[in-house]
C-alpha cells in the first residue's frame, strides 16, 4: 500500500504534475487548465483545503488497484 503524503509532500507532488501557484505570494495551488480546481495550503498547520469544485471532481474518481485494466 502506498505511503500517505503529508500536506507539504502533496503540494510538491502537485507542482511536479503541473499545478501552479495562483500568484507569486499565494498559498493557493490551481490546476493549470481549470482554476476552479484549487487547493489552499495552510503551512502553519500543514493542512490542505480543497475548493468545492475539486471536492466534487475527486468524488467522481473510482479507485482501482494498480495495473488493473479498464473494461471495454
Please give a structural write-up.
The structure is a single chain. The chain is an alpha+beta fold. The chain has one domain. 25% of the residues lie in helices and 19% in strands. The chain has a four-stranded antiparallel beta sheet with strand order 1-2-3-4.
List key phrases describing it.
alpha+beta; 2 helices; 19% strand
Strand order of the largest sheet: 1-2-3-4
Oligomer: single chain
What amount of the residues lies in strands? 15-25%
* Structural Rg: 14 Å
Shape: globular
Mean of the pLDDT scores?
88
Count the domains: 1
The biggest sheet, with number of strands, parallel, antiparallel or mixed sense and barrel status, is: 4 strands, antiparallel
Distance between the termini: 27 Å
Which class best fits the helix and strand makeup? alpha+beta
- What series of H and E elements makes up the topology? HEEEEH
Helix share, percent: 25-40%
Number of strands: 4
Helices, by number, come to 2
Helices and strands in order, then pairings?
Layout: H1 7-16, E1 20-21, E2 28-30, E3 38-42, E4 47-50, H2 52-59
Quick rundown:
The protein contains two helices and four strands. The protein is an alpha+beta fold. The chain has one domain.
